[in-house]
Fold this protein.
Amino acid sequence: MKPETFTSIVSQLRPRLLNLALQFDADTDAAEDAVQEALMRLWTTWEKLLEAADAERLAIRLTKHACIDAYRKRQQTVALKEHTATTNDDAIQEVELQNALERVVATLPSAERRLWTMFAEAQMDSAQIAAATGITIRSVSTMLSSARHHIVESLKKGGAL
C-alpha cells in the first residue's frame, strides 16, 4: 500500500475509530489517545497491508486493544493509590499507637514499668522475670496484670483504642 493511500484511509477511519474508542471510555482525551496509539501501531505495519479493508480491520482491532490497555493501566493506578493510602494510614496509626503506648507506660509506677519493660521489650515470661528480680511468680503476674489493665484503660481513655 502506498503512503498516500494510507493517509487517505486514516483520515476516513479516524472519526469511526474515535467513536469506537468513546464507546470504551467516555473521556474524550483518553479515547483520542487510544486512537492515536492505534494509528501509530498501524503506521508501523502499513507497508505489509495489501488492501484498504486490511487496514480498516487492523485499525479497529488496534483501537480496541489500545482502549483495553488504557483501562487496565488506569485500574492498576487506582488500585496502587488505594493500597498506598491504606498502607500509609495503617503506618500512621501504628506510629500513633506506639507513641501513646510509650506515654502511658511512662506513667506506670516504677516497679510495674520495670516488669512491663522486661515482659514487653525483652520478651521474658513471668518465670524468667521472677528469677531475674527475685519477686515471686504470683507477684510478677499480679503486677503485670495491673500494668496491663492500667495501659488498656489509659489508651481507651485517650482514644488510642
Summary: The mean pLDDT is 86. DSSP finds six helices and no strands in the chain.
